[in-house]
Amino acid sequence: MCAIAGEAALGGGLPGGSFAREACSLMRHRGPDESGFHDAAEVALGMCRLAVVGLDNGSQPTYTEDRSVVCVFNGEIYNHRELRARLERRGRRIGGTSDAHVIPVLYDEFGPDFVLELQGMFAIALYDTRSGRLLLATDRAGKKPIFYSRRADGSVAFASELPALLTAPGIDRRTDPVAIDQYLGFRVVPAPRTAFRAVRKVPPATVLTFAPGELESAWRYWAFDFTRTDHEVDFEEAVDRVDALLQQAVTDRLESEVPLGAMLSGGLDSSLVVALTAQRLKQPLHTFSVGFEHAAFDESQHARTVAAHFGTRHHSFLIRPQDAPAAADTILRHTGEPYAFPSAIASYYMYRLAREQVTVVLTGDGSDEIFAGYKRYKPFDGPDGAPQGLAGRYQKVLADGVGDSLKSLLYSPEFIDRLPGSFPPDHLSGRLAETAGHPQAVDRLMQLDCNFWLPDAQLVKIDRMSMANSVEARSPFLDHQLIAYATGLPVGTKLRDGDEKAVLKAVARRYLPAGIVDRRKQELAVPLESWLGAALRERIQSTLLAEPSLERGYFRPDRLRAFVSEFRPEHSYALWTLYMLERWHQLFVDGPALPDACATPATPVGAGAQR
Prior knowledge:
Elements: E1 2-8, H1 19-26, E2 34-39, E3 43-49, E4 62-63, E5 69-77, H2 80-89, H3 102-110, E6 120-128, E7 133-138, E8 147-150, E9 156-159, H4 162-165, H5 177-186, E10 200-201, E11 206-210, E12 217-220, H6 235-252, E13 260-263, H7 268-280, E14 286-292, H8 300-310, E15 313-319, H9 324-335, H10 343-355, E16 360-362, H11 367-371, H12 387-398, H13 404-410, H14 413-417, H15 429-433, H16 441-451, H17 453-468, E17 472-474, H18 480-487, H19 502-508, H20 514-518, H21 528-533, H22 537-544, H23 547-550, H24 557-566, H25 572-589, E18 609-610
Parallel strand pairs: 13-14, 13-16, 14-15, 16-17
Antiparallel strand pairs: 1-3, 1-9, 2-3, 4-5, 5-6, 6-7, 7-11, 8-9, 8-10, 11-12, 15-18
């Protein structure tokens, strides 16, 4: 696992300075073990590495034998040994021992189609010296990020994290009003936008190509597809197939030359991953969870039950209200843009705890999106009788930050004028258009979630919070072969008589106690309403009622002042969303200096750890 950064002149000249080195220095949390750089007149590439596979002779950048192709890579390729053997049978020589060394040779052999051969998670930057082309490529689900900017002189700069990219010369930091509006509704900024109008994210499953004198080209080489469902599938046959695919996905993710553990919330998904992982290891598995003083949000007892059942070495951490503010700043320092999922606080401390014992963890993330695990799907189960209204109905469900009615109350006329089209904006119709005509609304919504909610909300949280602590997170449920099968299952195998994830629960019954399988689903969440009423109220009010916040231009000052002063419990998520927007402005917009992205909360892990 690594951080990557670089810039390509694309026919001009590179700006002065050493951007790639500075960016990688800022991202040392992603790769603390070693760094490597490629410097040439037309391109500069850099990486810092978290050594997991190929500890000896696994350094980057990597090259073809004639050094015509140079590559830096962030991620894990689980089929790298098979690819190496295949290339060698074709007469190719591959130096080094890690998965990264396969990539430039694979590209040299197959061109941009090389991404179709890769199984794993990745963000790749590859420069072909013969054509002067720069390629940026992301994995199928969008687990690993790349931010980039095409500058006024035509050159391109990129980095794994947005704060690092902002150190590049010539990056325009004006904010994007559409991105701000989307953030306020959804609590995240959806790709390809970022909060800065001149910076973009490479979407999932995409190869971007930049060449001298040409516009960038984008190739979406894979996509989630819930519209090709097999309605004749037998339920028990589906259970067997999901079981086999999940077992293989877990096995593929166990290769590691450093200590490996698993996240364990105590819910179905993480418990199933722990069960399958523990079966395959010769030594006890380290597992990790967090808990809260607020009993309604505390799953730690369930996690301990699963840990005891499988004999894991379990570690837990009690998160207190006073831990939240510092963690919130850490979240923003690593996302580089507004991000208002308070569950990221729990993720941060969980990964921080894990780092005390291991470098690699397996997680249960991704199951809800492909197996219909969200309760929000239930009202849409059955044929979609009103396709023209589906986007609006679902936007009301997903937009749980500052909803449209609050936007109408708070937005200034000037900010509304900066938004294109009618107000309030419709952000989901375009995303649902690709499944127009498909009769099942739940299929359409799961496809939307997998292309938006999963990469832009859930996977951002996993990547930034794990990498903030130098931990590599692997998600078996996001294996693309498992995804391909699961997305083809009819809704009835997932939502069966209103029971979410029915086919996966049937798999889980083969490995887990009934009490874990049948207990009420509880998403990883924090007691935000309780925290806002106590430890965070003064901080949020003083931040949002300060003069800079009132004068941003997004809101009517009098209405924002009244809304924040009232501080009603039912507005907890809206208040947190507004707070994280203003705090982001303070960190990244107001001052010329970037914050230290490696800064961490002052609370030592041991203060709340329970062994």
